[in-house]
């Protein structure tokens, strides 16, 4: 059996394994499971640029998701696939940069206090919750799309799950940009 067929036959399990691994990597980085000294250290200018690059990546990914949803509503399957695949690629770029920076220096602290800090933590909490909820939905829908011919996708849960995954994913990216603005502009 080839790999694609195996994924097609075990899409839910594959999505569960990938989701667990992704979330475990995030928590491992945040909890600094791997000592920072064990990681190669990029120049400070690169490490300092990661949040800014990630904010731009998030903004572009948000737009790609919205345009990708419109493409499928218009019946443009090829464009939808390209846009959603590109958004997922940007998600991977974001995650690699985020995990690397957090593993090296830990999470960024919010510089404000009082009401603005309360608002920040509320937005951050929603952003994190949506991001964690999005991961298994994304893996599932993307694996369905990847492992099935286009003609078979309507018979899968791709559309039903995608209708939940896309808005959660888009909102998570948008709130990530808000978190960035609160830390680096407002705070």
Automatic annotation (TrEMBL):
Organism this protein belongs to: Halolamina pelagica
Spans through the membrane: 12-33, 53-71, 83-100, 120-143, 164-186
Gene3D superfamilies, per database record: Cytochrome c oxidase, subunit III, four-helix bundle
InterPro entries: Cyt_c_oxidase_su3_a-hlx, DUF420
Record flagged with keyword Transmembrane: yes
GO function terms (MF aspect): cytochrome-c oxidase activity
Record flagged with keyword Transmembrane helix: yes
Biological processes, Gene Ontology terms: respiratory electron transport chain
Keyword field: Membrane, Transmembrane, Transmembrane helix
Protein name: Putative membrane protein
GO cellular component: membrane
């Amino acid at each position: 059996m080839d790999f694609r067929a195996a994924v097609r036959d075990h899409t839910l399990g594959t999505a569960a394994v990938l989701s667990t691994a992704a979330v475990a990597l995030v928590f491992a980085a945040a909890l600094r499971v791997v000592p920072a000294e064990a990681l190669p250290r990029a120049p400070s200018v690169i490490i300092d640029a990661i949040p800014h690059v990630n904010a731009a990546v998030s903004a572009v990914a948000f737009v790609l998701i919205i345009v990708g949803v419109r493409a499928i509503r218009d019946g443009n399957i090829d464009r939808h696939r390209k846009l959603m695949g590109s958004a997922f690629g940007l998600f991977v770029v974001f995650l690699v940069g985020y995990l690397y920076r957090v593993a090296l220096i830990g999470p960024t602290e919010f510089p404000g206090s009082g009401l603005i800090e309360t608002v920040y933590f509320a937005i951050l909490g929603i952003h994190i919750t949506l991001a964690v909820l999005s991961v298994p939905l994304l893996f599932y829908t993307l694996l369905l799309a990847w492992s099935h011919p286009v003609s078979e996708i309507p018979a899968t849960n791709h559309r039903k799950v995608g209708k939940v995954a896309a808005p959660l994913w888009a909102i998570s990216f948008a709130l990530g940009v808000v978190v960035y603005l609160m830390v680096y502009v407002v705070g």
